[in-house]
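User: I'm new to structure prediction. If I give you an amino acid sequence, what do you actually give back? Let's try with this one:
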Amino acid sequence: MNGSVAGGGVSEEVIRLTRGPSGLGFNIVGGTDQQVDSNDSSIYVSRIKKDGPAHLDGRLQEGDKILAINGRDLKNLRHMDAVELFKNAGYDVSLKIQHRLQPENGPAGHRGGGDSGGLPLAAILVPGLALAAAAVWILLRYRHRMM
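Assistant: Good question. You get back a string of structure tokens that encode the predicted 3D arrangement of the chain. For your 147 residues, that looks like this:
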């Protein structure tokens, strides 16, 4: 099932990570008691820790849904129960992940490392600020001459 595409703009992948000195290198959110969205008690990757196993592997992304760990389904778990599963998962860990696919016209959420296909924010803001500064300078110069 590695890399298969499921319905609804998502793909599933099995990722195997080896635990490092400080864990697997990511944080999770979610669970039945800490739902990310109403009616969604899934477990999600909230943060990838720099230089941790998940970051060095490069496939796991912030916002990915974790469906299972070592074959154990993560449905209907409290947050702390999910955390305990991760802590006790052993040295070599298998994660079944659901990635949200990025649409061609924009980003799908917290997806790092890829090209969004759009303009960087600076490409829009910098010229706009330059035009605004030029307009203020012209206005002030014109006003000074009128006085």
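You can read the tokens as a compact description of the fold. Here is one thing that stands out. The helical segments are 53-57, 79-87, 121-146.
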